[in-house]
Amino acid sequence: MHALERVLNFLQDLQSHLEGTGDLPEPHPIARFALQRTTPHDLQLCTAIVETELELWENSGLHVRPALHPYVAERLGVYTLDDELIGRFLDYPDCCVDYFLDGHTRYDHDPPTTTVLTEGFVPCRATCDRAHRAHLLETTDDPAPYRELERELERALQRLGVPSYHSAYEGFYEIHAPERDRT
Ligand SMILES: [Zn+2]
Predict the structure, then answer these.
(1) pTM value?
(2) Ligand 1 center to residue 124 CA distance, Å?
(3) pLDDT confidence of residue 1
(4) Least enclosed by CB within 10 Å: which of 43, 92, 114, 180?
(5) Structural domain of residue 161, as residue ranges?
Protein backbone atom coordinates (compact mmCIF):
# COMPACT_ATOMS: atom_id res chain seq x y z
CA MET A 1 0.00 0.00 0.00
CA HIS A 2 1.45 3.41 -0.88
CA ALA A 3 1.09 6.61 1.09
CA LEU A 4 -2.00 8.09 -0.56
CA GLU A 5 -3.96 4.86 -0.05
CA ARG A 6 -2.80 4.72 3.57
CA VAL A 7 -3.90 8.33 4.18
CA LEU A 8 -7.26 7.61 2.55
CA ASN A 9 -7.81 4.52 4.77
CA PHE A 10 -6.79 6.54 7.80
CA LEU A 11 -9.33 9.29 7.01
CA GLN A 12 -12.07 6.70 6.43
CA ASP A 13 -11.23 5.01 9.75
CA LEU A 14 -11.31 8.37 11.48
CA GLN A 15 -14.75 8.99 9.99
CA SER A 16 -15.98 5.60 11.29
CA HIS A 17 -14.53 6.41 14.70
CA LEU A 18 -16.45 9.71 14.76
CA GLU A 19 -19.62 7.84 13.87
CA GLY A 20 -18.99 5.48 16.77
CA THR A 21 -18.34 2.38 14.67
CA GLY A 22 -14.57 2.01 14.91
CA ASP A 23 -11.47 2.39 17.07
CA LEU A 24 -9.24 5.42 16.96
CA PRO A 25 -6.92 4.66 14.00
CA GLU A 26 -3.13 4.48 14.28
CA PRO A 27 -1.00 6.53 14.56
CA HIS A 28 -2.90 7.96 17.54
CA PRO A 29 -1.05 11.32 17.77
CA ILE A 30 -2.17 12.14 14.22
CA ALA A 31 -5.72 10.91 14.86
CA ARG A 32 -6.03 12.98 18.03
CA PHE A 33 -4.57 16.06 16.31
CA ALA A 34 -7.05 15.71 13.44
CA LEU A 35 -10.07 15.18 15.70
CA GLN A 36 -9.31 18.41 17.56
CA ARG A 37 -9.20 20.39 14.34
CA THR A 38 -11.80 18.95 12.01
CA THR A 39 -15.56 19.02 11.89
CA PRO A 40 -17.29 16.02 10.28
CA HIS A 41 -17.69 18.20 7.18
CA ASP A 42 -13.91 18.96 7.08
CA LEU A 43 -13.19 15.27 7.37
CA GLN A 44 -15.50 14.45 4.46
CA LEU A 45 -13.83 17.12 2.35
CA CYS A 46 -10.36 15.77 3.27
CA THR A 47 -11.47 12.29 2.19
CA ALA A 48 -12.85 13.62 -1.11
CA ILE A 49 -9.59 15.52 -1.76
CA VAL A 50 -7.38 12.46 -1.23
CA GLU A 51 -9.74 10.29 -3.33
CA THR A 52 -9.47 12.82 -6.16
CA GLU A 53 -5.68 12.97 -5.90
CA LEU A 54 -5.43 9.18 -5.93
CA GLU A 55 -7.77 8.78 -8.88
CA LEU A 56 -6.23 11.45 -11.12
CA TRP A 57 -2.69 10.32 -10.30
CA GLU A 58 -3.50 6.66 -11.04
CA ASN A 59 -5.17 7.67 -14.32
CA SER A 60 -2.12 9.73 -15.29
CA GLY A 61 0.24 6.74 -15.17
CA LEU A 62 2.96 9.03 -13.74
CA HIS A 63 5.48 7.53 -11.31
CA VAL A 64 5.74 10.20 -8.59
CA ARG A 65 2.73 10.71 -6.35
CA PRO A 66 1.37 14.20 -5.71
CA ALA A 67 1.89 15.80 -2.28
CA LEU A 68 -1.05 15.86 0.10
CA HIS A 69 -3.07 18.99 -0.54
CA PRO A 70 -2.35 21.55 2.23
CA TYR A 71 -6.03 21.51 3.30
CA VAL A 72 -5.49 17.86 4.31
CA ALA A 73 -1.86 18.22 5.42
CA GLU A 74 -2.71 21.03 7.88
CA ARG A 75 -5.53 19.01 9.43
CA LEU A 76 -3.35 15.92 9.90
CA GLY A 77 -0.54 17.90 11.54
CA VAL A 78 1.95 17.34 8.72
CA TYR A 79 3.51 20.78 9.35
CA THR A 80 3.15 20.56 13.13
CA LEU A 81 3.70 17.08 14.57
CA ASP A 82 6.98 15.17 15.06
CA ASP A 83 8.93 14.96 11.77
CA GLU A 84 9.83 11.29 12.23
CA LEU A 85 6.20 10.29 12.89
CA ILE A 86 4.97 12.25 9.87
CA GLY A 87 7.77 10.94 7.66
CA ARG A 88 6.85 7.36 8.48
CA PHE A 89 3.12 8.05 7.99
CA LEU A 90 3.86 9.45 4.52
CA ASP A 91 6.07 6.48 3.59
CA TYR A 92 9.32 8.46 3.45
CA PRO A 93 12.35 6.06 3.56
CA ASP A 94 14.42 6.08 6.79
CA CYS A 95 17.55 7.28 4.95
CA CYS A 96 15.68 10.40 3.80
CA VAL A 97 13.96 10.98 7.16
CA ASP A 98 17.42 10.84 8.85
CA TYR A 99 18.77 13.32 6.32
CA PHE A 100 15.88 15.69 7.08
CA LEU A 101 16.40 15.29 10.84
CA ASP A 102 20.10 16.22 10.29
CA GLY A 103 18.87 19.67 9.28
CA HIS A 104 18.33 19.34 5.53
CA THR A 105 14.82 20.73 5.40
CA ARG A 106 14.80 21.45 1.68
CA TYR A 107 16.18 19.94 -1.50
CA ASP A 108 19.95 20.63 -1.61
CA HIS A 109 21.41 18.39 -4.33
CA ASP A 110 22.63 19.01 -7.86
CA PRO A 111 20.73 16.31 -9.79
CA PRO A 112 22.38 14.57 -12.78
CA THR A 113 19.26 15.24 -14.80
CA THR A 114 15.89 16.92 -14.27
CA THR A 115 14.20 15.43 -11.22
CA VAL A 116 10.55 15.44 -10.16
CA LEU A 117 9.72 15.03 -6.46
CA THR A 118 6.63 14.97 -4.32
CA GLU A 119 6.43 18.55 -3.02
CA GLY A 120 7.94 18.92 0.46
CA PHE A 121 9.80 15.61 0.39
CA VAL A 122 13.59 15.90 0.88
CA PRO A 123 15.63 12.98 -0.55
CA CYS A 124 18.93 11.96 1.10
CA ARG A 125 20.64 11.92 -2.31
CA ALA A 126 19.82 13.22 -5.78
CA THR A 127 18.75 9.73 -6.79
CA CYS A 128 17.71 7.70 -3.73
CA ASP A 129 16.47 4.28 -4.90
CA ARG A 130 14.22 3.84 -1.89
CA ALA A 131 12.56 7.20 -2.54
CA HIS A 132 12.07 6.17 -6.15
CA ARG A 133 10.41 2.92 -5.09
CA ALA A 134 8.14 4.86 -2.70
CA HIS A 135 6.92 7.00 -5.65
CA LEU A 136 8.56 10.13 -4.26
CA LEU A 137 11.22 10.80 -6.91
CA GLU A 138 11.90 10.30 -10.59
CA THR A 139 14.53 11.58 -13.01
CA THR A 140 12.98 12.50 -16.32
CA ASP A 141 13.71 14.42 -19.50
CA ASP A 142 10.16 15.69 -19.68
CA PRO A 143 8.48 16.96 -16.51
CA ALA A 144 5.62 18.61 -18.47
CA PRO A 145 3.08 15.81 -17.78
CA TYR A 146 3.48 16.53 -14.05
CA ARG A 147 2.60 20.19 -14.55
CA GLU A 148 -0.40 19.07 -16.61
CA LEU A 149 -1.54 16.75 -13.79
CA GLU A 150 -1.17 19.64 -11.33
CA ARG A 151 -3.49 21.79 -13.44
CA GLU A 152 -6.01 18.95 -13.66
CA LEU A 153 -5.89 18.49 -9.90
CA GLU A 154 -6.39 22.20 -9.28
CA ARG A 155 -9.47 22.20 -11.53
CA ALA A 156 -10.94 19.07 -9.93
CA LEU A 157 -10.37 20.38 -6.40
CA GLN A 158 -11.97 23.72 -7.28
CA ARG A 159 -15.06 21.80 -8.37
CA LEU A 160 -15.08 20.08 -4.95
CA GLY A 161 -15.10 23.51 -3.31
CA VAL A 162 -11.62 23.30 -1.79
CA PRO A 163 -10.57 26.80 -0.74
CA SER A 164 -7.78 28.20 -2.93
CA TYR A 165 -4.49 28.30 -1.14
CA HIS A 166 -2.01 30.76 0.34
CA SER A 167 1.12 31.78 -1.55
CA ALA A 168 3.46 29.55 0.46
CA TYR A 169 1.87 26.61 -1.30
CA GLU A 170 3.90 25.72 -4.38
CA GLY A 171 1.96 22.87 -5.92
CA PHE A 172 1.91 19.10 -5.76
CA TYR A 173 5.40 18.60 -7.25
CA GLU A 174 8.90 20.06 -7.10
CA ILE A 175 10.99 20.00 -10.26
CA HIS A 176 14.77 20.47 -9.95
CA ALA A 177 17.11 20.95 -12.91
CA PRO A 178 20.88 20.27 -12.93
CA GLU A 179 22.95 23.31 -12.02
CA ARG A 180 24.54 23.46 -15.49
CA ASP A 181 21.06 24.00 -17.01
CA ARG A 182 20.11 26.82 -14.68
CA THR A 183 20.51 30.36 -15.91
ZN1 LIG B 1 16.97 8.16 0.91
Answers:
(1) 0.93
(2) 4
(3) 73
(4) 180
(5) 3-181
